[in-house]
Amino acid sequence: MENAELVGVADTNQQQAESIAEKFGTKAYYRHHELIGKVDAVSVVVPTHDHFAVSKDFLENGVDVLIEKPMTSTLEEAEELIRIAESRGLIVQVGHLERFNPAVIALQGIIKKPMFIESHRISVYKGRSMDVSVVLDLMIHDIDIISNFVKSEVKKIHASGVSVISGLLDIANARLEFESGCVANVTASRISMKNERKIRLFQKDAYISVDFASREITAVRMRDDSGIGMQHIENNMPNFDLIPGMEISQTCFADGDALEQELKSFVNAVRKRETSEVTGQMGRDALKIALSIMEQIRRKND
């Protein structure tokens, strides 16, 4: 990556650290503290329960951090990291990867004031991230995306979910009611028979459907005879005159590396000392909603 040097990788698993370091031509460390004084910025990709302690160590030593989602295990921990960063003029970015999905980026100019949103993020069992519930593992992606689109406070949550194999929530559904009047119905599962990542948004002038896996957008809007409105997403795809007075447009995006774009965004923010695209506050806000969903389900299931 331009404008950055990979100083080293740290992993408490010595064999893993050495394997990755050899693969990428860098140095292996076995404790994260060994990187302090050697680096300007770090990417923290440790188990969720260690996010706070590891990130705090770096922030207290003047190092900017990119923290994998969920930001921390508790709201208090997230707020403490934000406080430390702000007091020292440091950058915190949270790894909400879908913000860098080409489909999500394209929606920025289309989504105005959504009033109903429906999302499904379901996955076959992979045996990973089982140290956290499906709400913090998968659903939090959609919580963050939806919050970014709606830009309104959540006023009410209705949630349900069950633990099937992990001892933690494996399937969950939440209905989020926002102060703006928007309602979002969010479903996440990690023990399904197929993989699916889709979101549908309804607003006054349009219905937009997004398939994150295929990076495809379908938009239905009132026909604009001037040709203005849909041209920035049509990408020469055909229009289908199925609904009188409406225009249906589709676009497909080539595969992109969202993780690469996320890391480049972080490096850019660090170099220019600019606010990151997914701030610590945004990560904290998504975490607050996720934890509220989990607490409501816990109370129902007790």
Summarize the structure.
The protein is built from eight helices and 13 strands. Helix 2 (51-59) packs parallel to helix 3 (75-88).
Characterise this structure:
- The structure is a single chain.
- The protein is an alpha/beta fold and 302 residues long.
- The chain has two domains: 8-96 and 258-279, 3-Layer(aba) Sandwich (Rossmann fold), CATH 3.40.50; 99-252, 2-Layer Sandwich (Dihydrodipicolinate Reductase, domain 2).
- Helix content is 32%, strand content 26%.
- It is built from eight helices and 13 strands.
- It has helices at 14-23, 51-59, 75-88, 102-107, 134-150, 231-234, 258-272, 280-301; strands spanning 8-10, 27-29, 41-44, 64-68, 92-95, 116-122, 154-162, 171-178, 183-189, 196-203, 206-211, 216-222, 246-252.
- An eight-stranded mixed beta sheet has the order 7-8-9-6-10-11-12-13. Strands 3-4-5 form a three-stranded parallel beta sheet, sandwiched between helices. A two-stranded parallel ribbon has the order 1-2.
- A hairpin with a 4-residue loop joins strand 8 (171-178) and strand 9 (183-189).
- Helix 2 packs parallel to helix 3, helix 3 (75-88) runs antiparallel to helix 8 and helix 5 (134-150) packs across helix 8 (280-301).
- The longest helix has 22 residues, at 280-301.
- It is globular, with a radius of gyration of 21 Å.
- The N and C termini lie far apart (49 Å).
